[in-house]
Design a protein that fits this description.
- This protein has 386 residues and is an alpha/beta fold.
- The protein has 3 domains: 108 residues, ATPase, nucleotide binding domain (Nucleotidyltransferase, domain 5), CATH 3.30.420.40; 94 residues; 151 residues, no CATH class.
- 51% of the residues lie in helices and 11% in strands.
- The strands form 2 sheets. It has a 5-stranded mixed sheet.
- Helix 5 crosses helix 9, helix 7 crosses helix 9 and helix 12 packs antiparallel against helix 13.
- 33% of the residues are buried.
Length: 386
Amino acid sequence: MDTHAQPAPYFAGLDAHLAYVTVAVVTRGGEPVLEQRIAVTHPERLVAALAPFHSAERPLAAVVETCPFWAWLFDLLEPAGIRMCVAHARELRAIATSHRKTDERDALLLARMLAAGLIPHVVVRTRPERDVLALLRHRAVLVRDRTALANRIHAQLHLQRLALPRARLLRRAGRAWLRETAWPRLLPEQRRLIRTHLRLIRQLTTDVRALDRRIATRAAATPSAVLLQTVPGIGPYRGLLLATTLAPVTRFPSAAHLVGYAGLAPRTRSSGGHTRHGPIPRAANHAVRGALVSAIPSHVRVAPASPLSQYYARQKPRLGWRVARVAAARRLARVLYGMLATGVAWRGAAAPDEGAAAAPAAVTVPRRGELRSAAVALGPTGRVTT
């Protein structure tokens, strides 16, 4: 049978690894017509292997899981006219729970799921957006490493019954306290460890400041990041991160969907007429959730009279500062949704109730049917162009 002459379109599943890519191509009915393993050192062989199943009239549809290797495959095959799809790996439970798991079976099952329309898609970022996200992640990693070094210094101090507020360690007064008070009580190896860690912290601080300057330049050139920075407590880093990660905002049908994407809504289990609410889920965009939650103390410090700060102040005695901060971040997410959808800047109006469908008076969250038209009419002001 001449499979190349089949009128039905073909579907390809790609199981990518560091050294090779396993390819499986199936018909619409799921019949395999190609199964092959190709070394990543010869990407032209991958294009050549898929070429017989692809044409301008009937383009090949291909799918790859989210993994460290999806980006180069997307950039290789998408310009060739192949309709690339990136699948959410966490939701592909059919592969994850299979008792017989091989690269060939994974690629074949991916292709069959694509043919059946069962692939959970993820938003594919453009190359410029990926570059921005790489910059932001670079900074986040350096800050995390600097924090780890500072924590090790605190651990050495605790071993000698010494304590220093965490915010003071990296300041000039904290360094003076180390020399004058802590140094005589530390063991020789503890002193060497602290010297090494302080030197690394100084270098990381220099690198972070250089990244902050580049981030500020990028944020100033991104209209939606500039828009989000009108919220007290959101600076260039958080503004650029949220603007890039949430774009386009039209993919969220409502503010509640954005809240769920950020993992700020509590888990809900309802069965037999009983509804139980639990903690926030682990599965979420942790960068977005972290930016929103960490923005709350900054917002409270900069704008203590704002309705969002007042809401946090009311919830803190009742829920504790951790839960209250998440609750305030949930409201902030709804506000940012309305700002990105309408292009209206923050004006410090009252925050909405949890069940309300509108953001502050300064930001009106559009209805589902109005969201796309609002974003299109807004143009570059309220969203990042993909």
